[in-house]
Amino acid sequence: MKKLWISILVVLVVFPMMFQSSVKAATPISIIIDGVRLSTDQAPVMVNGRTMVPLRAIFEAFNATIKWNQKAQTVTATKDDTTIMLKIGSKTATINNKAVTLDVPGLNLKGRTMVPTRFVSEALGHEVGWNPKTQVVTITTSASNVGNAGPVSNVVAQDVSDFGDGRDLQVSFTRAANESLVDHYRVLIVKSGNILNLSSAQTITSYNYSTVLPTGTNPSIQLTSASRTVDGDSIKSNQAYVAYVLTVGKGSNASALSSGSSTMTLVNKTVAAINNVQVNDISDYGDGRDLSVSFNKLSDESKVSSYRIFVVKATNYSNFNLATANNVTSANYTLVSKTGNNITQILSSGARDVDGALVKTGVSYRVFVMAIDSSNAANNVLSSVSSAITLSNIGVSNLIVSDVNNYNDGRDLRVSFTHATDETYISQYRILVVPTSYYSSFSLAEANNISSAYYTAVSTTGTTTNQVLTSSTRDVRGALIKNGVNYKVYILSIGSSNTGNVLSSPSSVITLLNDSSVSIVSNLSVSDVNDYGDGRDLRVSFTHPTDETYISQYRIMVVPTSYYSSFSLAEANNVSSSNYTSVSTSGSSTSQVLNSSTRDVLGASIKNGTSYRVYVLSIGSGIYWDSNVLSSASSVITLLNDSSVKAVTNLSVSDVNDYGDGRDLKVSFSHATDETYINQYRIMVVPTSDYSSFSLSDANNVSSANYTSVSTSGNSTSQVLDSSARDVRGNLIKPGISYKVYVLAVGGSNYSGPNALSGESSVITLSTTKSPVISVTNVTYKEDNGRILISFVKSANESNISEYRVLVVPSKQGFGSADAIEVRSSYYTSVTPNGTNPSTFTATRDVNGDSIVKGVKYKVYVLAVANNSGVQNGGLSNSTEEFEI
């Protein structure tokens, strides 16, 4: 019994430990440097109790320069006066040429070189901490505890919505210059006229400010409905406010209060009501086209994005309100833009009421119109209801004409149509035969004026008419009907007392001919167009007969060759309707991809690996219903699944400019014929000195910074690379080096096969024939009340210079010509050459985009930038002495 209790106790102790171990193993490792999370393309991993991190990510985070020797598998990193060298796979490294022993050597993981985090950090003089519970490595650099957390700048408050509370207020600002010292920011809203200073800001309760955490970017926060002023009052419309931001420093780092934003007042501007909603019955299609809705648009549409028309059954309209309208699905209302003055909208044939039923005759409706607030659905406004309307229909439908005989007069023409649903107010119908050569369109006014000798009258008896005209029937111009003339037929519904007549839509064009044969299709072809493994892979194309007068439809029949050595008309006539595809006679040809449910003539689903022939059966109409005709067989087709990624072709390279960088290199190639499985192309520039050959494996492992992506749009690409383009080793492209170019076709996310690498281009060595730019001299600075005033002596020759760029660089930051070229335009001051030495001017930001602040040491450089007649292989001045303001 004692042993049993001991066993139970061991299980109770060990089982939670096992569970904790599994949870711990599932927690990802995070690396935090001076409070900022380090982002890496390969997640850190634990090896023998040591955290390994991608070498480029950790060294660049410390602003160290990196050199990688592919052949020797060594990495050398330099920061200030410290040089570290590691060899992949070796437990021995050097710090300033002094050997040290590593617990874990560097290694390769999924194409990334991983190095021990603690060794790299401590070798550069930084403190490292490890929390095994949270799996977090914290690194504190030597510069992280110097200085104070400065104030934010550019505080802006905006009115962004119309809720009538804090959600209407958005506050944005430029983050503190040294955000590594910042614990968090507090957004403070103060009523205009009240005073806020740093002391009072630090005492405000947490309920009365909004917290923003530093993220490395300039924040923009929209407040919430619960947000309050520093006094604890709710934020509301028609009250003036000023926004401040309090920077709260880490530990002993001091806090700082920003300047206030401009004063702003929240204004809740909602949509006005809509009036004068009118409805009218204007046609006789028996659907939404009969209903016209008009209303007066709003005089102020600044908050309106569109209008919605709601058709509501009259029996339900009393229960229709704004909340119900906001929930109606888009298929059950009509959207109207806010163009024009007062709006009149005729609904479409597919228009539905709010219950989803098609609008139709015989139902009583009422109509509402809602104005849509472009920023807040809660402010949508619903109109008052229209008067009731019930659509009536005195027009005919299903008008069909056919050539039924060969008398060469009106007896050859059969006219069929369905009578109006409601014939209460109809006295008769009139069949009007209109020659198309005289009428591009035929109006109700013209129809009302036709002589009684030129139409055929039909009574309202029955629900349909199917009438062959007489030998004496004439068209509306008085000519006898005959072969070889193009006609359209209309039906005029005559209202009682000869008022309210309605003209039908025209029939299709008919030309009476003395030819009773049903013709076969021609140019039948089949092709394999997709890789779904069903009927969607099969395209069938054919040309229609010139005369389709006696053809009602075509039937595409897919016949497995294993069952039919030949396929007869008798067999085709007996195929079930579920085992062929019907095609109408519209158009002069058909090119149709079958659908996924298409079956062969035996009822089996169409699939890959089966051989088929395709036939087309022309189906006779009218008195020729039993005169079907079968086409000849198509060629044999066996559907196959070809889902490979294909390489590009016709790859060529040329030297097109003289900038001395990637802009000199043009790459041209033809895209793969089938791009179904291709997501993008990657242009890779390969230095011939480093690669005797360049493989698909090499290409797959090239960093995204070291190739140029090209989309699959178009049939070909001819692209000049940009100034920042790099070769596959990460070096900027430049003259005097021999390169070969490859293009990698990359499969999409739904493709699991290999990428495809092109053949190599010819060798190209970029040359420069233009003169290099000459740098400026005597760059000087002086400090004036917190501003940096800069001057310099212009270049000796400005003929090939487009501009000067004044660059303020933190002195601890390494900086060279390549760095200067890549500085963003908003982070330098541009000066235009004009033949004289520039006047003294002010710089406000450094090359990283940060404001120039006290306590930071800087140097100033000037970069002379080449124009089209120069080459950018120089032009960077010497720096000024180190200084601070």
Describe the protein.
With 885 residues, the chain is mainly β. It is built from 9 helices and 61 strands. The strands form 16 sheets. Strands 5-6-7-8-9 form a 5-stranded antiparallel beta sheet, with helices on one face. Strands 16, 17, 19, 20 and 21 form a 5-stranded antiparallel beta sheet that branches. The protein is extended and about 115 Å long. The protein starts with a helix and ends in a 14-residue tail after the last strand. The model is unreliable at 1-25 (pLDDT under 50).
Quick one: how many beta strands? Answer: 61
Mean pLDDT: 86
Instruction: Output the number of helix runs.
Output: 9
Q: Structural class of the helix and strand makeup?
A: mainly beta
Residue share in β-strands: 35-45%
Shape: extended
Q: Going across the biggest sheet, name each strand in turn.
A: 5-6-7-8-9
Fill in the keyword field for this structure.
extended, 885 residues, mainly beta, five-stranded antiparallel beta sheet
In short:
By secondary structure, the protein is mainly beta.
SSE layout and pairing:
Layout: H1 2-26, E1 30-33, E2 36-37, E3 45-47, E4 50-54, H2 55-61, E5 65-69, E6 74-79, E7 82-87, E8 92-95, E9 98-101, E10 107-109, E11 112-116, H3 117-123, E12 127-131, E13 136-140, E14 153-159, E15 169-174, E16 182-191, H4 198-201, E17 210-212, E18 220-222, E19 240-249, E20 256-257, E21 264-265, E22 275-281, E23 291-296, E24 304-313, H5 322-326, E25 334-336, E26 343-346, E27 364-373, E28 381-382, E29 389-390, E30 397-403, E31 413-418, E32 426-435, H6 444-448, E33 456-458, E34 464-468, E35 486-495, E36 502-503, E37 510-511, E38 522-528, E39 538-543, E40 551-560, H7 569-573, E41 581-583, E42 589-593, E43 611-620, E44 629-630, E45 637-638, E46 649-655, E47 665-670, E48 678-687, H8 696-700, E49 708-710, E50 716-720, E51 738-747, E52 756-757, E53 764-765, E54 771-772, E55 777-784, E56 787-793, E57 801-810, H9 817-821, E58 829-831, E59 841-843, E60 858-866, E61 870-871
Parallel strand pairs: 1-13, 54-61
Antiparallel strand pairs: 1-2, 3-4, 4-11, 5-6, 6-7, 7-8, 8-9, 10-11, 12-13, 14-15, 15-18, 16-17, 16-19, 19-20, 19-21, 22-23, 23-26, 24-25, 24-27, 27-28, 27-29, 30-31, 31-34, 32-33, 32-35, 35-36, 35-37, 38-39, 39-42, 40-41, 40-43, 43-44, 43-45, 46-47, 47-50, 48-49, 48-51, 51-52, 51-53, 55-56, ...
